[in-house]
Specification:
Largest sheet of chain B: 8 strands, parallel, barrel
Number of domains of chain A: 3
Number of helices of chain B: 12
Oligomer: heterodimer
Number of helices of chain A: 17
Strand order of the largest sheet of chain B: 3-4-7-8-9-10-15-16
Largest interface: A-B, 15 and 14 residues
CATH superfamily of the largest domain in chain B: Aldolase class I
Structural class of chain A: alpha/beta
Radius of gyration of chain A: 23 Å
Distance between the termini of chain A: 65 Å
CATH superfamily of the largest domain in chain A: FAD/NAD(P)-binding domain
Shape of chain A: globular
Helix content of chain A: 25-40%
Distance between the termini of chain B: 50 Å
CATH topology of the largest domain in chain B: TIM Barrel
Number of domains of chain B: 2
């Protein structure tokens, strides 16, 4: 291997294979049985526990932890799957530090919450490894439902509908199911092909037909779907990426972070991926952090996140910010991109400093230059669907109740609906709740 | 630094912390290590009569009861008395006592209920230079099937008889170790006193089955698929032992009889509690078996600091201090009224107090949308359950109401004077005291 961390340019193979493998191993090591016992013993079994309230899928956390305490791990897993069939993935990717673990009373008491996420993973991994299914499919109802999008919302919805005995067809635009679980999550959060394995496991309930390569508005259309199916659920991802709209954004080595992350997740050999020596990520959300940290782990010498507002306004949680900085990423705040500079290839980005005033975010006029040989843009994604039948709120689908859209017989959930939090776990909750509502409307 | 020196039946030890007759005191190696670690004395593991040594099972002999994080709360054993030759034990006792003359060396003995057997072993023990003997009338398993241990301790007249034999046949002080596997501890204690015993020690272990293996359906510890009851000890038995200690201390006949306290003593505080109820010293086993001999350092520093804080110069200053406050229920002041109070600053909002009170008690705690838990004085009977289940120490306290205040639960003004059940109007046998 000739390239190193300090080799100039956008190059592959900056780090030896062994180092890259180590860098991309599990962010949180799975609990061994003894560790799980010790961690479970810390749960106080609170009354009407705050962790349940904080969980978008309302998993009965004290109950599943008590079941781990009493060494009934399968029962613990079933408690989790009852509320969240993607409990395995959520255990890996949930920002628990702002959800269940933030609400844990031991966080208030000692600043050290019960490690709910890792306990959840312990239980779900153990159950899924056995190959068993937590729930059986009820007798077929003969009802047909189309689910658009095989991401967390669509999968949760399809599984719940299948449980109730309905026949489901899931259409997904990509070549692989899983949605953001498969294409969008940082690799060290979903190792060992977990997303794909989870989909495969989930589909084993039966009654779900997965059709890949079907994109709404292209080769399938809502008009036809509502005629062919008893109900339709839209669990679409945000297909479009927001553009920076500054000059130079077409220079070589300027690309969107979503694509970088997705390419990384699908790569067979991480050392074949090209990464710059001086990487600059523009944005402040989870995608920005994922792109920045993974660039560093691939061997970039310096990685900077530039965000136009102050750090406390960042979409990425404090925990995610710390994850970035602990990996050597520098976060710079109050920098608004002005121009991307380069001769063919990007060489630097000019920013203008900003400050928060009573009139909002105000440019100060002071310019600052950051050298970069690779720039990732991570300033948000947008829904790219144009369906006349649907009512939109802002640029997302408007829903009421359990995901009912303005269009009769059509439900929606996940990132494509308004009011969501863009979290896997929220998408699962919405998909599940829509399925229950669809079931009620069909069978009620 | 307070003086921890202890004198029990004239036997001096640098501190009141002895190791009880049990595996830790079975041989010279352990006892020397214990003395080096700082223990004040030991009761050597029970010797039997001369002859073929005792045999033990060759499988597990202990079983455990755990709290959170596998903290050992109770231990049960089916081990018998020493399984080493009598002569070897005697030689070792002599050697250790010679090298540690300032430490208490008591020898536990269990031989058949015949005077000859006791007459035969006592001189041999005396010859070692030991400071005293402890009669093992307590062991509830194995030996009791052979007419020894608890089989003797459960029959007061045998206790009296054997105590007398021993007093007649040795100059050494005699301590009778009592079994808790009886209905009223005062009967065996009185018998020991009548027989001339110098002191009692209690409690020995409680007959127990610690657990059942649900796969094999065998009680544990399991020997080839079967289990027999064992003797239970450790922190979980302390409340039972404390009560028995107090019963003997407050009994008209046995009050004043020296007591060596045993049962789940794990730290200085446990020891101080036993002593406050009248024990001249304490014996420790399970805590040492769980954590090793080093715990005695904490016991010494803890008791010493507490004595300094309270102004006690010697252990005799507080021995028995709590005993006069142990009374019968009928004498408790019914005009004492308290209410639970929740300190909102230290509350972590777990809601265990609410669940306990709402589900199982008096519905005297409210919860609101912000998870603020508050006591409803109109319902609170001051039962203390909320205090007991709260994970944060001192977050919930029981606050005494002042005389003249209105108890909104009963609608009555709290009275200043003492009044108990014996004079209560609801008591048909009440007598009015002028």
């Amino acid at each position: 291997m000739s390239n190193t961390v300090s080799s100039p340019g956008v190059l592959s193979g900056r780090l030896p294979v062994s180092k890259v493998n180590e860098n991309f191993s599990d962010l949180h090591e799975p609990f061994r049985s003894h560790e799980a016992s010790v961690a479970a013993d810390r749960c106080y079994f609170c009354y009407d526990a705050p962790c349940i309230t904080a969980c978008p899928t309302a998993i009965d956390i004290p109950l599943f932890i008590r079941q781990i305490q009493t060494n009934t791990i399968d029962a613990a897993a079933k408690t989790i799957f009852e509320q969240n069939i993607l409990g395995g993935m959520c255990a890996r990717v949930c920002p628990t530090e702002t959800l269940c673990e933030e609400a844990c009373v031991r966080e208030a008491a000692e600043g050290k919450p019960v490690e709910i996420g890792r306990l959840q993973r312990f239980a779900t991994d153990s159950f899924m490894k056995s190959g068993a299914q937590p729930f059986l499919r009820e007798a077929s109802t003969g009802k047909k439902i189309a689910v658009i999008g095989a991401g967390p919302a669509g999968l949760a919805c399809a599984h719940r509908l299948a449980m109730h005995g309905h026949d489901v067809i899931i259409y997904d635009a990509k070549e692989k199911a899983g949605g953001l679980n498969e294409f969008g999550i940082a690799a060290y959060k979903s190792t060992d092909e977990f997303a794909a394995k989870e989909v495969e496991w989930l589909l084993e309930i039966g009654g779900i037909d997965l059709q890949l390569g079907f994109e709404l508005g292209k080769n399938i259309h809502l008009n036809e779907l509502v005629k062919q199916f008893d109900s339709v659920f839209l669990g679409l991802g945000l297909g479009a990426v927001n553009n920076l709209k500054v000059s130079g954004d077409d220079l070589e080595n300027v690309s969107d972070a979503v694509q970088f992350i997705s390419g990384l997740r699908q790569a067979d050999d991480l050392t074949s991926l090209r990464v710059g020596r001086e990487v600059l990520v523009i944005g402040g959300g989870m995608t920005a952090v994922d792109a920045a940290v993974q660039s560093k782990l691939l061997g970039a010498e310096t990685v900077t996140i530039a965000y136009r507002r102050s750090k406390d306004k960042m979409g990425a949680s404090t925990y995610e910010q710390e994850l970035a900085t602990s990996n050597g990423v520098v976060i710079r705040e109050n920098l608004k991109p002005k121009t991307i500079i380069g001769n063919g290839k990007v060489s630097s980005v000019e920013f203008e400093r900003t400050k928060q005033t009573s009139e909002g975010l105000t440019p100060t006029g002071e310019a600052i230059m950051i050298t970069a040989d690779q720039v990732f843009v991570a300033i948000g994604q947008a829904l790219s669907v144009n369906e006349e039948r649907l009512e939109f709120a802002g640029n997302k689908i408007n829903v009421s109740g359990s995901g009912r859209t303005s269009c009769n017989g059509v439900w929606a959930g996940g990132d494509c609906v308004s009011g969501g939090e863009d979290l896997t776990v929220t998408a699962v909750a919405q998909g599940r709740d829509a399925a229950e509502d669809i079931n009620l409307s069909l069978m009620g | 630094m307070a003086n921890l020196a202890s004198e029990f039946l004239g036997i001096k030890s640098p501190n009141p912390f002895w190791l009880a007759s049990a595996p830790p005191t079975d041989k010279e190696y352990n006892v020397r290590r214990a003395f080096e670690a700082g223990w004040g004395g030991v009761v050597w593991k029970t010797l039997g009569e001369d002859g073929p040594p005792i045999v033990n099972v060759n499988g597990p002999r202990y079983g455990a009861l755990y709290g959170a994080d596998r903290r050992l709360l109770g231990l049960n054993n089916i081990e018998l008395i020493t399984d080493r030759p009598l002569d070897l034990n005697l030689q070792e006792i002599k050697a250790v006592k010679r090298d540690y003359p300032d430490r208490a060396m008591i020898v536990s003995i269990m031989v058949p209920c015949e005077e000859g057997a006791w007459k035969s072993i006592l001189p041999k023990v005396e010859e070692t230079g030991a400071d005293g003997i402890e009669l093992n009338f307590g062991c509830p398993h194995g030996m009791s099937e052979r007419g020894m241990g608890a089989a003797v301790g459960q029959v007061p007249k045998y206790i009296e008889m054997v105590s007398r034999w021993c007093k007649q046949n040795t100059r050494m002080p005699v301590i009778v170790k009592l079994t808790p596997n009886i209905t009223d501890i005062r009967y065996p204690a009185r018998a020991a006193l009548k027989g001339g015993a110098d002191a009692v020690s209690l409690i020995n272990t409680i007959a127990s089955i610690i657990s059942v293996n649900l796969d094999t359906m065998s009680p544990e510890p399991s020997i080839d698929g079967k289990g027999s009851h064992g003797g239970y000890c450790g922190p979980a038995v302390k409340p039972i032992a404390l009560n028995m200690v107090a019963q003997i201390g407050n009994d008209v006949e046995t009050g004043g009889l020296p007591i060596s306290g045993i049962g789940g003593i794990t730290n200085w505080r446990d020891a101080a509690e036993y002593m406050s109820l009248g024990c001249g010293n304490v014996q420790v086993c399970t805590a040492a078996m769980t954590y090793g001999f080093k715990i005695v350092e904490e016991m010494k520093s803890g008791m010493s600091d507490w004595m300094d804080e309270k102004g006690y110069n010697s252990v005799s200053d507080f021995i028995g201090s709590a005993l006069p406050n142990v009374t019968e229920w009928q004498h408790l002041n019914l005009n004492y009224v308290a209410k639970a109070k929740i300190d909102q600053d230290s509350c972590i909002k777990c809601g265990r107090c609410y669940a306990a009170c709402e589900d199982t008690s008096h519905q005297a705690i409210s919860i609101n949308d912000e998870r603020v838990f508050e006591v409803i004085n109109e319902e609170c009977v001051a039962c203390n359950l909320c205090v007991d289940v709260c994970p944060v120490e001192n977050c919930i306290t029981m606050e005494q109401m002042k005389p003249g205040e209105l108890d909104t639960r009963t609608g009555k003004i709290v009275l200043d004077e003492y009044a108990n059940w014996t004079t209560h109007p609801n008591n048909s046998g009440a007598c009015v005291i002028d």
